[in-house]
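Hi V.,

Quick status before I head out on leave. The structure for the redesign project is tokenized and pasted below; the design run finished overnight.
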């Protein structure tokens, strides 16, 4: 099996987002056949391409993808069980046809890429969106809500709805994110789901993948050290927590980390 590191340790535009997502899913689902799922995406693309015909313009492409994915295939956002870890595994999202905003967006981005219709991910706080990558296009697509088309003003309303308070939409909220950042956000979702479930070995595996994406990221090193501490693996915990302090000696939580190190000694 090709490793997650091999697939993601390349120029960002060359990272195959679907393949990388399926590689990390294979750690949880060892029998997963990556090529089968990539072929499923190819079949979806071909059906949409046939439906599109020769006259292609942005709104028609979006409406055609929406019709096939959401009306004919029945993909939808998993509003009933949002924090089910399967929502973050692409194979399960394809099988069950339900997911969270970012995994559904990965499917949409992969279809758009095959159609040579450039789209990018938008890592808005609390809700992931995508948009066509054309100058002054001015629209966003909410894949979690059946491909709903949004304008900038709608994004601000969406933020207020999510956080239940007035929030000003800052320009950087709508900045496109890289493939690495998309994968990082998917894995981070899983990390905190496993933390809340106290499934520490699974959480540890996810942190290892995050560190393959972002080597020497101090917060991931710290969290892995704290996890080793929780698992009573004192030597590994000490190594990580000391490394964290060497990178961020004046971090806000540095006194707490030093106290933990003292306890282990």
């Amino acid at each position: 099996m090709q490793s997650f590191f091999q697939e993601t340790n390349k120029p960002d535009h060359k990272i195959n987002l679907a393949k990388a997502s399926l590689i990390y899913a294979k750690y949880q689902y060892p029998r997963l056949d990556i090529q089968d799922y990539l072929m499923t995406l190819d079949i979806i693309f071909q059906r949409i391409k046939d439906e599109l015909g020769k006259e292609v313009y942005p709104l028609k492409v979006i409406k055609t993808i929406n019709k096939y994915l959401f009306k004919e295939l029945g993909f939808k956002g998993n509003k009933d069980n949002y924090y089910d870890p399967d929502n973050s595994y692409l194979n399960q999202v394809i099988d069950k046809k339900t997911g969270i905003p970012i995994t559904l967006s990965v499917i949409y981005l992969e279809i758009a890429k095959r159609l040579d219709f450039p789209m990018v991910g938008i890592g808005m706080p609390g809700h992931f969106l995508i948009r066509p990558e054309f100058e002054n296009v001015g629209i966003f697509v909410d894949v979690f809500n059946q491909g709903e088309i949004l304008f900038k003003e709608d994004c601000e309303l969406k933020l207020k709805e999510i956080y239940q308070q007035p929030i000003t939409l800052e320009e950087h909220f709508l900045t496109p994110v890289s493939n690495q950042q998309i994968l990082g956000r998917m894995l981070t979702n899983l990390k905190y789901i496993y933390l809340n479930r106290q499934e520490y070995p699974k959480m540890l595996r996810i942190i290892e993948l995050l560190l393959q994406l972002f080597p020497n990221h101090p917060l991931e090193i710290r969290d892995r050290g704290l996890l080793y501490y929780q698992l009573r693996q004192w030597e590994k915990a000490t190594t990580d927590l000391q490394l964290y302090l060497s990178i961020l000696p004046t971090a806000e939580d540095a006194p707490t980390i030093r106290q933990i190190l003292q306890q282990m000694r």
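Above is the designed sequence. The longest strand covers residues 119-122.

G. will cover questions while I'm gone.

Best,
W.
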